[in-house]
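Q: Here's a chain of 253 amino acids. Please give me its 3D structure as tokens.
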Amino acid sequence: GYGTQSTHKPSDVDPSVVNISEEIYLGTMPDKHYVFLDATGREFSLNEMLGKPLLLMFSYYACDGACPMATKVLRSTLDKVDDWKLGKDFRVLTLSFDRHDNVEKLRMFEKHAQFTEEPPTGWKIALFKNPEDIERLTRSLGFKFFWEPRDRVFLHPSVYYILSPEGRVTRFLYPGSIQADDMEVAITKAYGDEIALSAKNIVNLLVSTCFSYNYKDGKYSINYPVFIAWTALLIGITSLIGGSVIIRRRVKV
């Protein structure tokens, strides 16, 4: 479900939260008039970020796992993209979906994402000016999140939305498997307003959601509640497939 720390009731881990129904949300054109605030307090609209392909990602700035990881993966990938240049040919927008985030947390997130200074030209890390807009925009794009009180973390998908210069969702990419070639093709197709399903799989989603970063140790560790839930889900799927195969063989015999 949707919500924030203050509105969520205790909930069991729900692995389906990482799933986005691409076939439903591809081609979506969100409202361009949402207003955001950058680290300096400057206001800007979604419309100002368009006119070129836009890579949009949702994060929360107190996150110690998937969000900084997804940001660093994106930075590393973009550094290897030769055909298109950040700022000149496309832009990136990182938005917080946590209404409790503020400028201080935003700057800490930049540090955790290993931006030594400000984000590069063409990349905005921002807050919603109106917190009520968070649910409107995330819901319109199929981005679901909920607060897991036991570990005091948000569970959410790690995904990069690719928007065309006009603001239409043309592609979804995931940190677990993204390559520079994938990004180059996605940006090229965004210029042509070409819509395409991603080649996502369960392994990519596991990589994006099952690890938390421990700043003290300087490494990632398994997020056990999510890992256990995914393991149970995979065992169930495997058992179902195995049972179907056995039944088919018996029928043939």
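Q: Can you summarize the key feature?
A: The chain has a mean pLDDT of 79.
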